[in-house]
Design a protein that fits this description.
Helix 1 crosses helix 2 (18-42). The chain has one domain. Strands 1-6-7-8-5-4-3-2 form an eight-stranded mixed β-sheet, with helices on both faces. The chain is α/β, with parallel strands linked by helices. The protein is built from seven helices and eight strands. The two termini are 33 Å apart.
Amino acid sequence: MTKEISLEQWLIGQGLTPQEADLWCDFISESFDLIDDGYALLCKPNEWNSFLNGCHTQSPTEPEITSGLGDRMKRLQADAPMESSRDRLQVAYEVATLGDESHGIRKPKADFEIRRKFEAGYSAAYVIEAKPLRTPADMNSRYLGDEGIGCFLEREPPYSKDKVVGMMGYSFKNHSSWEPLLTEKITAIGATKGLVQITLPSGRKCKVSEHERTAIGLPMATVTHTILDYTQSI
């Protein structure tokens, strides 16, 4: 594992210009702030109880967690002051994949898309795929599987063609075990530098990995990794 670096340094090392890296750093940092605040809001007792009332059972599924978290992220974004950095974000969940000609219930959908428009009309999307983590097998079969990180690296069309994408785990059991397991398994799927800790402009720490996408004709992708703890809530 390399020493801890800033996200800006990391992205410049991936071939982005300093200007591109600066834009992406701010965007990803703002996105993580929104995710963290949405997660904290969802885990408040009154919010969690309200959320559970809309679930099929008292043990929510991955799609139910996604919609519960997504609703609160959208609420926080909508309540943001005008012209603030959060006001410039657009939040969506269960987002259909552009360019895929499957339709109806077969249409593939990414769990989250946070989009921001920059000056001169440039728009970037930070797309995140989420997977539940209950047993050690879920790390390989779900999180690092074809329907997890593979949606960005091998799928045609991929969930995102942008240079930065995200994976999110919903930890339902043994929360402290998942990051070490991810560190152990990530190189087996082609992460050239393993799992690296970087620092966002906000000061938040984040784990990233880099992956080739030559099989689908795209440049290297940076994948962010975050695992949210729902063990105390379930």
